[in-house]
Amino acid sequence: MELFSEKEKCYGCGACYNACPKGAISLKADEQGFLYPVIDNEKCIECGMCRKVCQIGRELILQEETESICYGVKNSDNVRNASSSGGVYTAISDEILSHKGLCAGVVFDPKMKVVHTLTDHAVKRNDFRGSKYVQSDMKRIYQSIEKELKNGREILFTGTPCQVSGLKTYLYSKKIDIQKLYLNDLVCHGVPSPSIWKAYVEFLEKKYNSKVIKYIFRDKEKGWHGYHVKVTFSDNKEIKDNKEVESFVTLFKRDIMLRPSCYQCPYASLKRTGDLTIADFWGIENIDSEFSDEKGVSLVITNTKKGKNLFGKICNSNDIKIRQYNINQLKQQNLYRPTRRGNFYLNFWKSYIKFGYEKIAQKYGGCGKYQFFYHIRDSISYRLNNWKERKL
Predict the structure, then answer these.
(1) Mean pLDDT in residue range 74-93
(2) Residue 183 forms beta bridges with which residues?
């Protein structure tokens, strides 16, 4: 039994792992730290359920046509200060929680691992807020959602488009009624390696001799735009905006540590997998400078009637400010194409696998000595790459 022929095809969504009736599938990390399904042939009964729930080759039929309009959203200042952009996720999830529903989203667990979990408490839901630029571990979340849907609970699931598709194929194949399920996909740049994230956290803990207990990728003290990392340690130290702390997002911006499937992602499109799509509204200052501010603006795209109805329920709140735009005005690259693989991808992975995090932080992450020489290397590579593209 084989699920995929090339690693670039597998999204690591975990649908097969959740669906196997005999527990014959485990998710194991490769040398880059990404999870892939592995089948125990002694346990496998060849029922075909894993193939039935797999999204590979079915991506186009899982996508929805978007409307010709989109929305800019700003929640209250208090909510926006606790969010990565405009705080629309809080408003949408509040609507679900008000009906005693459940929200599925991503949190840092006590070991700072990024995982999907399920809650019906607003305080725990608040941990879902804020960007987490790491591929999350789905664990058995699909099974939990299946159980709660059977119990008649309303659920809002938020994740990357491939995670949303994985949940859809899982529930479709099991013939589960999804009338009370709301799917919320993100405009995704690509998911970095959990292994590198773990090594980065260990790097910080060793340097500052304390455990990381809180992490913010997009602290807004200096405004909404860009990455402003803030790390809180168990001894109450707060470190932000230095080269060591910023090294992970510097690597992220280089596009060299994403999952292989991200570089050819079919979901980087205006055709979406969720009932709703949310994102940071990058470029709003060029579309509507009056609405733009440094506290953040959310982008919302409604893709289905169900999503439109849910979004409509938050529009009458006094805390919510909404403006409508033509979808053709959007400039987010991942609504039109996948992220391109960074120039140093192969050398980066060789260095990480051989030497570990500290070495790649020095060579590609902007911290440590020899940065002058690495800057020259980057400039030469950038010019050469531009020359090649012009030739093409």
Answers:
(1) 96
(2) 157
